[in-house]
Amino acid sequence: MSSKPSPRRLPRPTPPASSAPEAEPLLALGAPAAAAPSPDVRARLLARVRAERATAAGTTLPGWRFDSASDQSGWRPSGMPGLRFKTLSVDQARDVALVLIELAPGARFPDHRHDRGGDEGILLSGDVITGGRLMRAGDYYHAADGTDHVDTFSPGGCTALISLTVRAWQTWRSPSPS
Fold first, then answer.
1. On the chain, which terminus has fewer CB atoms closer than 10 Å, C or N?
2. Do residues 120 and 163 touch, judged by C-beta distance below 8 A?
3. Is residue 17 domain-resident?
4. What is the dihedral of CA 107, 112, 114, 115, to 10 degrees?
5. Exposure of 150 in the CB half-sphere (CA atoms within 13 A)
6. Who's near 91: CB < 8 A, 6+ residues apart?
7. How far apart are the C-alpha atoms of 33 and 151, rounded to whole Å?
8. How far apart are CA 63 and CA 51, in angstroms?
9. How big is the CA angle at 122 (ends 107 and 88), to the nearest 5 degrees?
10. pLDDT, mean of residues 17-43
11. pLDDT digit string, tens, across residues 96-139
């Protein structure tokens, strides 16, 4: 068995430290020119920057109001275990109230008849059984005036956005904040 000598590897030469900064401007000259963003992209970007600044500063445009389900202020106990409400708006002229309802895991909503107008809502998070159906986040329902709302409970807890008549809301709301 013959043994060949292994080839000798020479170390790579390292460029002088001063050559890299000198090469950057030359490389930049060879790069293609960046295209300006389209007017639509520019407008959306500027709107986003303005919105983030306004949000950080807590400013609101005249005639606007904002709220959040995650903001704990404004939630009111219902007097029923695991059930609370947050009134977002009440429009007496249109007889419409917009309310957030939260059910804790395993909580039940009391059976009731829609005798002061129907209601409708969309499940924002969690799950709830109502109207004989299992609803999950994103699902919508409408219960017409004169219908019965029975067997409503949430296996894992939920938050829903509900629109109902002011007359109906006045029968459910609680007078004291949580």
1. N
2. yes
3. no
4. -150
5. 4
6. 97, 166
7. 65
8. 16
9. 85
10. 75
11. 999 999 999 999 988 888 888 889 999 999 999 998 899 999 99
- Find the distance separating the first CA and the last CA of the chain, reported in whole Å: 90
Structural domain boundaries enclosing 148: 87-171
Q: Would you say 136 and 127 are in contact if contact means Cβ atoms under 8 Å apart?
A: yes
The one-character DSSP state at 89 is: E
Cα–Cα distance measured from residue 138 to residue 163, given in angstroms and rounded to the nearest whole number: 15
Domain for residue 16, yes or no? no
Q: Tell me the CATH number at 159.
A: 2.60.120.10
Two structure tokens written together for 177: 């904040």
Both tokens of 87, joined, read 């009134």
Q: What is the model's pTM?
A: 0.69
Residue type, position 118, single letter? G
Count the Cβ atoms, other than its own, within 10 Å of residue 34: 6
Q: Which two tokens stand for residue 120?
A: 């409708």
Instruction: Tell me how many domains the chain contains.
Output: 1
84 neighbors 154 (Cβ within 8 angstroms):
no
In a domain, 31, yes or no: no
Quote the CA–CA distance of 91 and 32 in Å, as a whole number.
58
